[in-house]
Amino acid sequence: MFSEIQVSGLTLTIFPQERWREAILSYLFGLWTNKSEVVYRPKIAFGTIVLRLDQSKGAYYAYGKNQEGEQAPYFNDEEVLIVGPKQEEVEIGLVRFVKNDRIRRITITSDNSGFVRLWKKARRGEYGVMSYNIPISLEECIREDELKAGKT
Length: 152
Hints:
The protein is of the alpha+beta class.
């Protein structure tokens, strides 16, 4: 499956699949250096799967079209990184995933028991992405948050 990566804020920047590392780093460095092109509406999309930062909550929403067809291959525990939706966990996890060749897969969990999984494929420059049980839209994420808030 081909999955281009979109980094957006004020402008939309599209990276081809083989530049996935550059796309992730561009997004993160844009956030960390407070570039308006990224911090205005910070999100990174892997094909149809979006990670969107809610700056007021310091957490990421994952939403989009669930991609369950392609499964990540098995990796040993030391090759796998699992992070929660908190901003710091996701961003540090993504840097580690990009920069550390021993980390082959990252799973970003969400508050609704769903997750997004990225993995490095055997062929350099290729990555895989899949998701499970994530809302289809940002509006649905917000609606789920409001329902949870009403229950507590």
